[in-house]
Amino acid sequence: MNTITLADLHLLNIQTIRDLEANTINEIPHANLIKKAGKATANLAKQLIKKKALPALILAGPGNNGGDACATAAELAKDGYSVIVILCADPEKYSADGKKAFDKALSRKVIFKNSDALDDLLKLDFSIIIDGLFGIGLKRTISGSYEKVINGVNQLAHKKQIFILSIDVPSGLNADTGTLVTDDADKNVAVKADATITFIANKPGLHTADGKDYAGEVIVNDLGIQSPVTEESKLLLNHASRFNFQLPERKQNSHKGSYGEVIVIGGDKGMLGASVLAARTALYSGAGKVNVSLLHPAIDYDTLHPEIMYKDAQHLQMKEEIVVIGPGMGHSDIAKTILSKALSSEISLVIDADALNLIAANKELNDLLMGRTASSILTPHPLEAARLLHISAKEVQQDRCKAALLLADKFKCVVVLKGSGTIITDPEGRLRINTTGNPGLATGGSGDVLAGLCGALLAQGLNSFETAQLAVWLHGAAADTLVEAGVGPIGMIASELPEAIRHCLNAFVDNQRLAN
């Protein structure tokens, strides 16, 4: 996507998409969405094809997705492209528009094969593979000939570096949750696309959980259907181009107190590094003053960053600072006492790591968090979220959006559910799925960095939901910046992130200033 629009960022679930389709067909009986989808897919495919002399391979399944695939084949053939379709359906069972698309493809000399020809076809080379097996309606585990076709084309594409374009959603992926559609834990079958052209509106499952690995780049085509897109939409992708807030202007006539104070509480014996990472990030992210309050005060000076002050957590007075609590905190009685004190205070908190685990395991701490009136941001990874909800991490990952919403509602907090396509939500039900980041963030300490970044943005005046959106976006953007510079994703370490965050934060502020 070259230009990001609100329509690209707006996310609709499967049921809403179905309702919009039905309303369109009722209001415009001859809308022929299948023909429109085929034309849109073919137009994109023509931009992607590098070797026109090679045939395009299209997979056509049952249902409207198969109709879309046949319409795509007909459009490509009309423009002189050689097309082979593996037809995994009975075209007589297609809808009227789907059957028209099949007949049109036949009339234009598209070659149709069934799955029995797969082994011979996999010996050939193709200009592109277009996946039109299953769409958003898939509910069962893929097996039999469908499984064989999907596994075969995935292997072929990987071996010969053939671009795979999926129609609407990669076959086998749940468009709502981003998980693979299966009722068999041993079977994970889905098309691994390089790009997905998705219709009517963008879909949450393309951007979280397994979605980012299977959907590739997502291109939205509304097929002329007007979806309910507004600035107040609750379900959106998290992208800086649409942030309707900004950091307060840094005036010449200001001082360190103008940009807030962050206290990081944690650092039990053997885990001091977590607090140091959070504190250094808060410093690089613009907090005016940064303190570390250690449960095990083994150090009182940071040789790399002497700007950070170190104190004993047991003597801490919490007043008007922003507190980041949990990194390397451990599970001692002292940790519980200090956490209880923080939860009972009226200061803004960023609650991470061991603090989350203590809350999950202790009813008194749980109740204190539920009863807070001051703002709190929770930053769990899936296992920490599972402990807080008293379910399994697998259940959290099966529907990440639902889990994040449950947490936000339970604790009346802003929640950042970390992972692929990090979820940001609040008690009002506003939900964002993050667009930045890469596997380089899958390393020890990156969560501590995010917590420190949240603390710094809160200290500079953003509210909790704004802070979470910007912090998560910057955290991922910093990792992307490092990869672009040749650092990672393999071997990227958390301590490399703070300077990159500083760069991305300043660029973000400059871009906003120019835009205004």
What does this entry look like structurally?
The two termini are 23 Å apart. The longest helix has 21 residues, at 464-484. The chain folds into two domains: 6-233, Rossmann fold (3-Layer(aba) Sandwich), CATH 3.40.50.10260; 242-246 and 254-515, 3-Layer(aba) Sandwich (UDP-N-acetylmuramoyl-L-alanine:D-glutamate ligase), CATH 3.40.1190.20. The chain is built from 18 helices and 17 strands. The chain is an alpha/beta fold and 516 residues long. It is 41% helix and 14% strand. It has a ten-stranded mixed sheet, sandwiched between helices. Helix 8 links the parallel strand 6 and strand 7.
Strand content: 5-15%
- Rg, rounded, reads 26 Å
Number of strands: 17
Which superfamily, in CATH terms, is the homologous superfamily of the largest domain?
A: Ribokinase
Count of discrete alpha- or pi-helical segments spanning 4 or more residues: 18
Helicity range: 40-55%
**Whole-number total of structural domains:** 2
Question: What's the rounded overall pLDDT mean?
Answer: 95
Structural class of the secondary structure composition? Answer: alpha/beta
Shape: elongated
Binding site for (6S)-NADPHX: 64-68, 135-141, 146, 168, 274, 328, 381, 448
InterPro entries: CARKD, Nnr, Ribokinase-like, YjeF_N_dom, YjeF_N_dom_sf
Subunit structure: Homotetramer.
EC number: 4.2.1.136, 5.1.99.6
